[in-house]
Amino acid sequence: MDNIKEKNTAPIKDLTEGQPMKLIIMFALPLLLGILLQQFYSLVDALIVGRYVGKEALAGVGATGSVNFIVLGLVMGICNGFSVVLAQRFGAKDFPGLRKAVANSIRLCVIIGAGVTVVVLLLCKTILILMRTPDNIFDFSYVYLAIIFAGIPLMMLYNFSAGVLRALGDSKSPIIFLAIAAVLNIGLDLIMIVCFGMGTEGAAIATVFSQGFSGALCVIYIKKKFDILKYEEGEKKTDVGLMKTLLSVGLPMGLQYSITGIGSVILQASVNGLGDSAIAAITAALKVHILLSCPLEGLGQAMAPFAGQNVGAKKLERVGQGLKSALICGFVVCAMILGLAFLIGEGAINLFLDKETLTPEVVEEIIGYGVKYLIITAFFDVLLALVNIVRFTIQGMGFSNFAMIAGVLEMIARILAGVILIPALGFTGACLASPLAWIFADAFLIPAYFHCKRTLDKGFNVS
Fold first, then answer.
1. What is the per-residue pLDDT across 86-122, written as a single tens digit (0 to 9) for each?
2. Counting beta carbons within 10 angstroms of the beta carbon of residue 339, is it exposed (0 to 12), middle (13 to 18) or buried (19 or more)?
3. What is the extent of the structural domain holding 47?
4. Contacts of 332 (CB under 8 A, 6+ apart)
5. How far apart, in Å, are the Cα atoms of 258 and each of 76, 141, 283, 299, 372?
6. Concatenated DSSP letters for 377-404?
7. Number of structural domains, the chain?
């Protein structure tokens, strides 16, 4: 049946029944909207910082991207991993086990969130120094990064609560709350930066507060609407074995992002050597590309609960059908992204620049760099589609360690790009760094998927 309403005042989507392509598209659309909203207010942050604070501030925010990816990717990946376990228990209709998993996931989130926050705040300045962050943007980077890291518990609140909803097949509710937070974020950006004259710290405070607000809305909604998650006696108890299971899935998913990010940090150090115009160009081009490629991320994220629920229900053939459907959609999206890169690339990069404070030569240099980066990256997006969709499918199947290995390969590729490609090719080497990372990851993920499928097949046949 499509919607399970027993013990619930809100519908829960069962992804184990129905036509896979339709289910995945309908489930991915709200996820896509959510990703677009997140990227939109991230884009607005960069636009406001670039126009009202200056090129150095924009470069300062951009120089923190890879470090952000390591740390925030870790906590987001862990939350996504926990939601895979929840999706599998929901797919198996093990509702008491689902509630126990939620309770123990919350404990782990509190412990991990607090620990990571303390460690990264202590190391923040040291990391920026090791990355060779230019002196003229160092203070902008440090203030922005420190505030973002201080808000890790609030960001973890949203990612876990939204992950719970997605595990139960509800991809719409978190988006509504995120939309409210996006409007709030933009309003706070304008108030703090334009009205109060704050710099990158204003953008960081707006981002952290908005994420925490959307997380609080998710929690309130879950408590009021999802009776299936109301605990019965004994279900809140600490279960060490269950916590180990959660960590066995969550940690590899989190480390996958962090390991990939380590390569990005080394790569960023090489990019920093190209100058603040190159850093600003890549910052703007990345924002545009991430926005354009949101559908690929949405399709990938949809595959984790889809695969998780169907593995829990022992319907492995549906996982393969879903993977094929998602890939077809992904390849169509890639063609559209490449076309848009050519059509709107120059105009999009131009939006980030305050021409009154920059010479025409600098404007031309930044736009040239940015358009080149955007088009080269878009040309290889079919590789990114494979990475996102296959990786999330493997994670939903319960093989997070394989996804982590793919992250290691991406890290190696980005290190090679930073050590070899950029010194040899300059800015062109920076443009080829991500495609090289996707090639390395795909070379492992594609055969890994078939191995996971064979392993589960054997297990289901035995049982």
1. 888 887 888 888 899 999 999 999 999 999 999 989 9
2. exposed
3. 22-462
4. none
5. 10, 19, 20, 22, 27
6. HHHTHHHHHHHHHHHHHHHHTT-HHHHH
7. 1
249, pLDDT greater than 60: yes
Confidence check: pLDDT of 356 > 80: no
Q: Are 414 and 267 in contact (CB under 8 A)?
A: yes
Per-residue model confidence as pLDDT tens digits over 30-47: 777 777 776 776 667 777
Q: How far apart are CA 292 and CA 39, in angstroms?
A: 10
CA distances from 82 to 63, 253, 385 (A): 30, 9, 24
pLDDT at 66 over 80: no
The Cα-based distances of 229 to 210, 306, 362 in angstroms read 26, 20, 56
Average pLDDT in the 206-227 region? 88
CB-based burial of residue 439 (10 Å sphere; 0-12 exposed, 13-18 middle, 19+ buried)?
middle
Is 4 domain-assigned? no
Residue 289, in any domain of the structure: yes
Q: Whole-angstrom Cα distance, residue 318 to residue 310?
A: 7
The answer to the question of residue 337 being in a domain is yes
DSSP character for 4? E
